[in-house]
């Protein structure tokens, strides 16, 4: 096996291994108000027909289409119906009922004419156009029949799914438990984000970014803090992290003398699926399994950490949550400034995406490499530049990947 993979192959490897390891997630029942972003474990079915009656989609008059086969038809208005109201009678020949949007179409009527196409003089209604049968009516059961599947198990619940479940009275939902993701930063130079660093130290920004990324991906993040570049402590903290479903380490995966993550994982019996990816930033990323758990060793430079999390850790969290992996939301944009990148790898370059009308446009932002969080905070996406296109002229179409939460 080539331990350094193209990023698409590395992502596929993660999905393959995580899919083989996953088991049916533990389930829990929560109130619908807490369901956003969770993965449904038990399907939701319709408790009755939807709509439960023939529903008007316009304000106007419920009519018999046979009475309005030509313009200037005149009808007698015999009642009024608003949403939730009831009309006890039947619309007979030459009659109509004033009706509001969302109301139940009365018996005898088979069409609704919009109020804009009528004139009213007392109880007499004159139409200015022909109205076919079924016009502006949603028939009972046309959206879903009683017992029909509304939301399938394995669906990540969004606001539309929450509204649909609420409509069906499913206010308690059975969902998959969140996978637990342990987060361990490494490095002698790293101190807590709340600390005052020494002149040669840096605050732990990776722990914060990974926690947020894991939480928004649908996982339960578990902070383990920071381990120094020392084998005994690192081994102990990695062993702690293997109690979770996924262990994500940042730092210690490059080729330096004190980059000890791979060595310690190997001593713990890890199986490595790749030990590098042909991307910039993020080339030293590591993916392994150890003690039946997924382990990701992400490069310590902050931009590398964030990019590799999105590419590789996110699909693993999806699978362990009981969902299918979300595809990378890559789309095309017109390049505003020329690009020249070197090396047989795919580049993920901090970029600013804007729209002119319906056309997306993108330009690379100046940056100082994979430690430059300032540039990434100004970016709302990444230019994705493959090894087959080292030089791209302004005006050409390129791939872009939005930064999650920024667009």
Through-space gap between termini:
38 Å
In order across it, which strands form the biggest sheet? 8-5-7-6-10-9
pLDDT < 50 runs, ≥5 residues: none
Q: Please identify the structural class as seen in this structure.
A: alpha/beta
Work out the radius of gyration: 30 Å
**Helicity level, as a percent range?**
10-25%
Can you tell me the overall shape? elongated
The tally of strands reads: 30
Give the overall average pLDDT.
Answer: 95
Largest sheet data: 6 strands, mixed
**Portion in strands:** 25-35%
Query: Number of helical segments?
Result: 7
Notable characteristics:
407 residues, 30 strands, six-stranded mixed beta sheet, alpha/beta
Give structural notes.
There is one protein chain. 20% of the residues lie in helices and 32% in strands. It is α/β, with parallel strands linked by helices and 407 residues long. The strands form 9 sheets. The chain has a 6-stranded mixed sheet with strand order 8-5-7-6-10-9, with no helix packed on it. Helix 1 packs parallel to helix 6 (302-320). It is elongated and about 95 Å long. The model has no long low-confidence stretch (mean pLDDT 95).
Summarize, please.
This protein has 407 residues and is of the alpha/beta class. Helix content is 20%, strand content 32%.
Write the layout of secondary structure elements.
Elements: E1 4-5, H1 7-21, E2 27-31, E3 44-45, E4 55-56, E5 60-63, E6 74-81, E7 95-99, E8 111-114, E9 118-121, E10 124-127, E11 137-138, E12 149-151, H2 159-167, E13 172-176, E14 180-186, E15 190-191, E16 202-203, H3 205-217, E17 220-227, H4 231-241, E18 246-250, H5 261-267, E19 271-274, E20 276-277, E21 279-280, E22 286-290, E23 293-298, H6 302-320, E24 331-335, E25 339-340, E26 346-356, E27 359-364, H7 373-378, E28 381-385, E29 391-392, E30 397-402
Parallel strand pairs: 1-20, 6-7, 14-17, 14-18, 15-16, 18-23, 21-26, 24-27
Antiparallel strand pairs: 2-13, 3-12, 4-11, 5-7, 5-8, 6-10, 9-10, 19-22, 22-23, 24-30, 25-29, 26-27, 26-28, 28-30
Helix pairs in contact: 1-6, 3-6
């Amino acid at each position: 096996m080539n331990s350094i993979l193209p990023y698409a192959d590395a992502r596929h490897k993660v999905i393959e291994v995580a899919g083989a390891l996953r088991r049916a997630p533990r389930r829990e029942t929560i109130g619908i108000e807490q369901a956003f972003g969770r993965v449904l474990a038990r399907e939701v079915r319709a408790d009755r027909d939807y709509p439960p009656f023939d529903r008007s989609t316009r304000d106007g008059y419920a009519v018999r289409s046979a009475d309005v086969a030509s313009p200037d038809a005149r009808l007698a208005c015999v009642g009024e119906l608003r949403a939730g109201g009831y009309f006890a009678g039947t619309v007979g020949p030459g009659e109509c009922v004033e009706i509001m949007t969302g109301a139940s179409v009365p018996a005898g009527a088979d069409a609704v004419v919009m109020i804009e196409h009528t004139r009213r003089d007392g109880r007499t209604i004159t139409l200015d156009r022909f109205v076919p049968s079924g016009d502006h009516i949603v028939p009972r059961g046309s959206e879903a029949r009683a017992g029909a599947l509304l939301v399938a198990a394995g669906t990540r619940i969004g606001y539309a799914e929450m509204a649909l479940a609420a409509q069906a009275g499913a206010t308690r939902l059975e969902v998959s438990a969140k996978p637990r993701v342990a987060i361990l930063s490494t490095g002698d130079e790293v101190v807590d984000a709340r600390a005052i660093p020494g002149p040669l130290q840096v605050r732990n920004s990776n722990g914060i970014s990974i926690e947020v990324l894991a939480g928004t991906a649908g996982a339960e993040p578990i902070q383990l803090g920071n381990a120094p570049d020392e084998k005994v402590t690192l081994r102990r903290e990695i062993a702690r992290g293997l109690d979770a479903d996924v262990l994500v380490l940042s730092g210690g995966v490059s080729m330096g003398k004190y980059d000890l993550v791979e060595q310690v994982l190997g001593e713990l019996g890890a199986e490595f699926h790749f030990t590098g990816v042909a991307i910039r930033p993020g080339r030293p990323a590591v993916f392994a399994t150890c003690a039946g758990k997924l382990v990701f060793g992400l490069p310590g430079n902050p931009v590398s950490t964030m990019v590799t999390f999105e590419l590789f850790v996110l699909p693993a969290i999806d699978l362990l949550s009981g969902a299918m992996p979300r595809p990378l939301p890559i789309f095309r944009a017109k390049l505003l400034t020329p690009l020249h990148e070197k090396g047989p790898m795919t580049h993920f370059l901090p970029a600013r995406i804007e729209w002119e009308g319906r056309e997306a446009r993108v330009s690379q932002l100046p940056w100082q490499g994979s430690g430059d969080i300032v540039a990434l905070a100004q970016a709302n996406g990444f230019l994705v530049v493959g090894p087959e296109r080292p030089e791209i002229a302004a005006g050409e179409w390129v791939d872009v990947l939005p930064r999650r939460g920024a667009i």
